[in-house]
Amino acid sequence: MSTPPPPMPSDRTPNEARSRRRRSGARDLLLVAALAWAAYGFLQDVAIAHHRARQPRGHNIRRPFLWRPTDVQPRRLKRCLRRLVRDVPEDTRLVLYAPSDEDFRYRWAAYFLPAYDVVPPLVPPSGPRLAVGLREVPPDGTRLRGNRACGLYRLP
Fold this sequence. Notes:
The protein is 40% helix and 13% strand. With 156 residues, it is an alpha/beta fold. The protein has a 5-stranded mixed beta sheet with strand order 2-1-3-5-4, with helices on one face. It is elongated and about 110 Å long. 17% of the residues are buried.
């Protein structure tokens, strides 16, 4: 009978094999984290769509920090702001008065009015003292255009 061939010497050392397993584990962990993040986003979108389907038309279900450009609320805000500032010169500082729990609304307003300097009421206005009131009336402001829900005011 013949004897089995001698074992071939391994070209990898034990340290190299361990390092390769660690890299593979880290890669698997990153893949699992990315899949979990994608699944969470998908489930959140499904829950929002389901909630919207059960609500009456035009019902506001999300705060401004959850708005997306395709939602009804940002389009309504954009239409309102464009109507108010049609005669206001560019580079004018506009103070935005909105309910205090919706501080992201002024960021959306700044996004929709890039030619204007839109600031929250904490910053004192310079130049023409104009304010935009969204469901909040500026103190001592005189309405120039619009209504209480969306109006342009002159500040004293």
